[in-house]
Design brief:
By secondary structure, this protein is mainly alpha-helical. The chain has helices spanning about 1-10, 10-35, 50-60, 60-65, 70-90, 110-125, 135, 140-165, 170-185, 190-195, 200-215, 225-235. It has a single domain (about 1-35, about 70-95, about 105-225), classed as Transmembrane di-heme cytochromes, Chain C (Fumarate Reductase Cytochrome B subunit, Up-down Bundle). The protein binds protoporphyrin IX containing FE.
Length: about 240
């Protein structure tokens, strides 16, 4: 078991980020090499400056807000929670205190970041069991949503167990040792990882996260990288 734990928490993470970086570069190169689409993609009235309106369209999703207000609220909460999640993971690296101008415990959000993401992902998954979303969905959509949901669930469970149920055999300090070691290519697993029941949640969290990170460049979620440039084209 120690070997599998080590394989998932160390080499598999490096492999996942390698596949992510190489895959993303290949996808961007492929799209840049594709023949330019002669037809205009303009669907919004041209407004200047285009980059600012492209940011507005990408992050505030005005069309969705007008036509599907509930889905807009859930998607906005999802993306805000995702931003907080990225900050939360950055704070798991020793010395990263940039966001400590507002004092908060690590992992930030008192467990509600994970809760918001879990609920939003359940909504995004279940809406695809009904028309018209079901008719527009392909198996990849369900696999990706389920994989992301499992990643989020085991990540959040680690925090809920410690914060809401006092099950704190693995502390934020242990996570910082682990994450900082990974970043500095001097991987170090705290002994608690091998001695506590808590660590199975960490192993499952990182296992599903690695799979998600490897699949990302080859999936529809790449839209997150191209949405701004696409919205710029839609502004003419
Ligand atoms: C797709 C990528 C990932 C997603 C969606 C994700 C999601 C999450 C979520 C939702 C939480 C709990 C947030 C909360 O407390 O409310 C979390 C915590 C955590 N994640 Fe991730 N994560 C990802 C990748 C990773 C990776 C690659 C690692 C390590 C190599 C990692 C290590 C951790 C650790 C150590 C915690 C802290 C748990 C705690 O405070 O108890 N995560 N993650």
């Amino acid at each position: 078991m120690p070997t599998i734990t080590y394989l998932i928490l160390v080499p598999m993470v490096y492999l996942a980020f390698l596949v992510f970086i190489v895959g993303t570069v290949i996808q961007i190169a492929r799209i840049r090499r594709a023949p330019k689409n002669p037809a205009t993609l303009q669907i919004f009235p041209e407004r200047k400056p285009k980059w600012l309106w492209a940011l507005h369209d990408s992050f505030l999703m005005p069309t969705l807000r007008r036509h599907y207000p509930l889905r807009w609220v859930i998607l906005m909460s999802f993306h805000i929670a995702l931003l907080l999640l990225i900050i939360g993971h950055l704070e798991l690296f020793k010395g990263f205190t940039f966001f400590q101008f507002w004092e908060h415990e690590i992992f930030l959000g008192k467990g509600f970041v994970g809760l918001a993401l879990s609920l939003a992902l359940l909504y995004l998954l279940f809406r695809r069991f009904h028309s018209p979303a079901r008719d527009l969905s392909v198996p990849e959509d369900y696999y990706l949503l389920i994989l992301l949901f499992l990643t989020v669930l085991f990540g959040a469970e680690m925090d809920w167990a410690r914060r809401w149920y006092g099950y704190a055999e693995l502390s934020p300090g242990d996570y910082q040792t682990y994450m900082t070691g990974l970043l500095l290519f001097r991987p170090e697993l705290p002994v608690a990882v091998y001695q506590t029941g808590h660590s199975f949640m960490l192993v499952l969290h990182v296992f599903f996260a690695n799979l998600f990170i490897m699949l990302f460049p080859f999936s529809k979620i790449m839209h997150s990288i191209f949405s701004i440039s696409l919205n710029k084209l839609r502004r003419g």
